[in-house]
Amino acid sequence: MNKIFPQGDANGSAAAGSKALPGGEGAVPQSLPGFLVAHCGDPASWIYSDQMCDGINNCGDCSDELSPVTTCPPCGPGWWRCPSAVFRYCSCIPRSLCRDHLQHCFDWSDEYSCPGP
């Protein structure tokens, strides 16, 4: 459920007749105020600004969660910091995934170090 919105083709122009819809392709809608849009590490992609620093890899390259594109606060109380092995997360996973007998962190800390939910 990645909501990445490409702005156009490699030449910087949007495809004729394309619309910027969730999951679709197209340019950033001109009717949206700038504070509602956040650009990803790939300049051709954008997300809604409320998707920045939400713990989910919305840009597909973690640029909405990690520096230098954004400065997010450390993991919140419901999260465990680790190098994620799951594409959906970047540097924190929900604690609900800890100690569930499945690897979510490259270092397995979600199974051996995380105190759980």
TrEMBL record:
InterPro entries: LDL_receptor-like_sf, LDLRAD1_C. Keywords: Disulfide bond. Residues 1-24 are annotated as: Disordered. It holds the Pfam family LDLRAD1_C. Residues 73-112 form the LDLRAD1-like C-terminal domain. It comes from the Eukaryota. This is Low density lipoprotein receptor class A domain containing 1. The lineage of its organism: Eukaryota, Metazoa, Chordata, Craniata, Vertebrata.
